[in-house]
Write a structure and sequence with these properties.
alpha+beta; five-stranded mixed β-sheet; 36 strands
C-alpha cells in the first residue's frame, strides 16, 4: 500500500515480534479451511457491463455436507470500519451439483448466509450481481473506469483464517480495456486475465482497477522488483501529464526506501483513477494502493499543491499499517466476532499522515520551501478547533469505526471527526521529530525511528505492535519520557496541539492579511470560502454556510450551518465582496449587515467583526536552527535528466 534496495540505501534487518499484552481480545476458534492451495475457491469477476454500473461474479466454493454458512466480507482492511458494501450485492443464486439450494440470511449478522448442503455435494456454485454504484458503498464505476475491489465480488467459508483460505481469481474486462493489479498473473487471453492462486487475505488486499484510457508508468526498478504508477482516466486528455510531475513521482520510491531503510513488498502498484465522478479517496494495501482523484489531479498544479500527499501517504502505509500493524487491528477473519480495535490509529494514521506529507515534499511533488506555509495552515486549523477542549484524540481513534461511517453532519469542529487524528497526529509526530533532533543535537531524527519501527527487507507480512513497543522503539533512538508525551497529547484533553514544536524548529506562528497558499489552495480545490481564522466561518462560493467556529464573530452573529448568505450590506453576495467587506470593516465600529436565507425564510444578521483578514504563516526566529528545512531536505539526489513519461506494458 521487495527485495534488496538500490545502491546507497542501507538495508536494516530488524526482528520485531512483540508479544500480545494481557488485555488482548480472546483467541478466536477458527474452522479448518476447505479452500486449500491445491483445491482453492474460484471466482470469475465479469466486468463487461462496468460502464453500466454492473458486474457479475461466479464462484465455486468448497463445502461440507450439512449446515453451512458463507460470509460476505464486512471488516475491510484499510477502512477501519465494518462497512463492507453489502448493499451492492444482489440476485444471489446458489446451486449444488446443478440443483438450486435454498439460502437464508442470518437474522442478526446480515453478512452471513446459511444453507444446508446435501450429501455428495463438495462444491457449490454461487452467482450474484454486483451493483457498482450505491449511496453507502460509493460510486465505483463510470463509462470508462471501474475500481476493482475483490471484497465486493466474493463470499467465502465462515469462520476461517483469511491467510489459510485460498482463491484463484479471473477477471473479464470490457473490450479494449486494460487493468492494473499486484496479483500474480498466470495467463491473459484478450480481455480475460487469469490470476494465480493466492490467499483470501492477498486477494482482498489487491485492488484491480480497469479502464478504457490507461497509462502504466514504471516509476522505479531495482534488485529484481519495480514500482508502477497506473493511471485510469475518464478522458484521454487527463493522461497528458508534464514530465516534471512524473519525475517527482519517480523520486517517491527512492525517498521512501531511504526513509524506512528497506521494504516489505515484492512489487508495488499505485493505482490512480482520474474522475470527478469517482471522487477523492485513498486506501492502502500491502503491494498497491487504491487512489482516487479528480479529472485534473495530475495536470493541475493547484491540485498537486493541495493533495500531493495522496499517493505518498498510501505508499508509506505499506510499511506503517500493512507491515507493522496495531496488535488489535490485525484480525484473521473479515467477519471476526471480535472486531477491530482502532485505538492505535494515532500511530497507524497519525504518523503516516506526517510521513505522507514529508515524502511529498522530499520527492518534489510539492516544493520543500513551501513546508513552513503548509505547517502554519495545519497548526492553526487544529488550534482553532473548539472540539479539542472536551474530546481527546484517543476518543476519535477508539471511535474511528463510528467516525468513518457516521461521524458527519453539522458542526464538525465541535464534534471532531476522523480527520482530526490524521492532522493532529501529524503535528504530534513532527513534535517527536523535533524532540529527537534537539535531544541528540541533530545527530538523529524520526528517520532513525522509522528504521527501527519498519526497517529490513521481506516479502509481504504482518508484524504487530503495542503502545509499549512504540515507546520502546523511540527510547532506542533517544531516551525521553515518551509515555508521558503520548499520555498528554493522545490520552488526555489537550486544548492546544503540541506547543513547543514550532519554536523548537526555529519558527513562530503569526497571522496577517496575506493569504496562505495552502489555505487558499484548499479552499479553491474544494470550491469554498475559508474565513475560519478571522470571522470564524467556512462556506461555499455561493455563501452556503458549512461550519461556524464556536465563540467566533460568526457564532455571535447567529450564523449556522444550513444558512446561505445572499447579500452583504444590501448587495448580492459574491466571494470578492465578502473579502472586501471584512477588509473595509477593519478598525471600524459598524457591523457588516448580512441577508440570510434559511429554508424558505429570510432574515438579517449583524456581523460585528473589525480585526481584518487573518491568515497563518511561520516566521523564522533569528539565530535558531531551521529544522523544517532539514526535515524536508531530499535524501536521494534526483535524476540529472527528466525521463520521458512513456507508457510501459502492463506488468504481470
Amino acid at each position: 500500500m521487495k527485495h534488496l534496495i538500490q545502491a546507497g540505501i542501507a538495508a536494516l534487518a530488524v526482528s520485531l515480534a512483540p508479544a500480545l499484552p494481557a488485555h488482548a481480545q480472546p483467541a478466536l476458534h477458527l474452522d479448518p479451511p476447505l479452500a486449500t492451495r491445491s483445491d482453492p475457491m474460484t471466482v470469475v469477476f465479469d466486468a463487461r457491463k462496468a460502464p453500466l454500473g454492473l458486474a457479475y461474479t461466479h464462484m465455486t466454493i468448497p463445502v461440507a455436507p450439512g449446515p453451512f454458512t458463507i460470509d460476505y466480507p464486512q471488516w475491510i482492511p484499510g477502512d477501519h470500519a465494518p462497512d463492507g458494501p453489502l448493499q451492492g450485492m444482489s440476485e444471489l443464486r446458489i446451486k449444488g451439483n446443478g440443483a438450486p439450494l435454498r439460502w437464508q440470511r442470518d437474522q442478526v449478522d446480515m453478512y452471513a448466509f446459511h444453507l444446508d448442503v446435501p450429501q455428495g455435494v463438495r462444491t457449490i456454485d454461487v452467482d450474484f450481481t454486483v451493483i457498482m454504484n450505491t449511496d453507502l458503498g460509493g460510486m465505483m464505476a463510470t463509462r470508462n473506469i471501474m475500481i476493482g475491489n475483490w471484497n465486493r465480488a466474493i463470499l467465502y467459508q465462515r469462520n476461517t483464517d483469511n491467510e489459510q483460505y485460498f482463491v484463484r481469481a479471473s477477471l473479464i474486462m470490457p473490450p479494449g480495456w486494460d487493468y492494473a493489479s499486484a496479483l500474480p498473473v498466470v495467463a491473459r487471453s484478450g480481455d480475460r486475465v487469469d490470476f494465480d492462486t493466492v490467499s483470501l487475505e492477498t486477494l482482498v488486499d489487491s485492488p484491480t482497477d480497469i479502464g478504457r484510457y490507461v497509462k502504466h508508468i514504471t516509476t522505479w526498478t531495482g534488485n529484481g522488483t519495480a514500482t508502477y504508477l497506473d493511471l485510469f482516466a475518464d478522458a484521454p486528455e487527463d493522461l497528458k501529464i508534464d514530465d516534471k510531475v512524473i519525475d517527482a513521482y519517480k523520486n517517491l520510491t527512492p525517498e521512501a526506501l531511504a526513509l524506512y531503510g528497506g521494504r516489505h513488498w515484492n512489487v508495488y502498484h499505485s493505482e490512480l483513477t482520474l474522475s470527478d465522478q469517482l471522487g477523492f479517496e485513498g486506501i492502502e494495501h500491502h503491494q498497491s494502493s487504491d487512489d482516487r482523484a479528480g479529472d485534473s489531479f495530475m495536470t493541475s498544479p493547484a491540485e498537486q499543491l493541495a493533495n500531493g500527499d495522496l499517493l505518498p501517504h498510501e505508499f508509506s502505509h505499506s510499511w506503517n499499517g500493512k507491515y507493522r500493524r496495531p496488535f488489535d487491528l490485525q484480525q484473521p477473519d473479515f467477519n471476526d466476532p471480535y472486531p477491530e480495535r482502532t485505538e492505535l490509529l494515532w500511530q497507524y494514521e497519525g504518523m503516516n499522515q506526517y510521513m505522507g506529507d514529508l515524502l511529498s515534499f522530499r520527492a518534489g511533488i510539492r516544493d520543500p520551501k513551501d513546508y513552513p506555509e503548509f505547517l502554519a495552515a495545519m497548526y492553526a486549523t487544529m488550534s482553532y478547533e473548539p472540539g479539542r477542549k472536551t474530546t481527546p484524540i484517543i476518543d476519535t481513534t477508539t471511535g474511528a469505526p463510528y467516525y468513518y461511517c457516521c461521524g458527519y453532519g453539522d458542526y464538525p469542529s465541535i464534534r471532531r471527526t476522523a480527520n482530526d487524528f490524521y492532522d493532529e497526529g501529524e503535528l504530534m509526530w513532527l513534535d517527536v521529530d523535533t524532540i529527537i533532533r534537539q535531544q541528540t543535537h541533530g545527530a538523529k531524527s524520526l528517520d532513525d525511528y522509522t528504521k527501527v519501527f519498519a526497517g529490513g527487507v521481506s516479502a509481504p507480512k504482518v508484524v504487530t505492535y503495542t503502545r509499549e513497543d512504540l515507546e520502546g522503539y523511540l527510547n532506542q533512538v533517544t531516551p525521553y519520557d515518551w509515555h508521558g508525551f503520548f499520555q498528554k497529547y493522545v490520552y488526555s484533553i489537550a486544548p492546544q496541539p503540541p506547543t513547543d514544536e514550532i519554536a523548537r524548529a526555529g519558527y513562530k506562528l503569526v497571522f496577517d492579511d496575506k493569504p496562505n497558499k495552502f489555505v487558499a489552495g484548499r479552499a479553491a480545490t474544494r470550491h469554498r470560502i475559508d474565513s475560519w481564522f478571522d470571522v470564524g466561518v467556512q462556506m461555499s462560493q455561493k455563501g452556503e454556510v458549512g461550519d461556524v467556529r464556536e465563540d467566533s464573530a460568526a457564532w455571535a452573529a447567529g450564523l449556522a450551518p444550513g444558512m446561505q448568505i445572499v447579500a452583504i450590506d444590501d448587495r448580492a453576495f459574491d466571494s470578492d465582496l465578502w473579502t472586501e467587506a471584512i477588509t473595509n470593516a477593519k478598525g471600524g465600529t459598524d457591523a457588516i449587515h448580512l441577508r440570510i436565507k434559511q429554508g424558505g425564510w429570510y432574515t438579517r444578521l449583524d456581523l460585528a467583526y473589525h480585526d481584518g483578514l487573518k491568515y497563518p504563516h511561520l516566521e523564522r526566529i533569528p539565530g535558531t536552527t531551521d529544522m523544517l528545512s532539514q526535515i524536508m531536505q531530499p535524501r536521494v539526489p534526483p535524476p540529472k535528466k527528466a525521463a520521458p513519461a512513456a507508457a510501459s506494458p502492463v506488468p504481470g
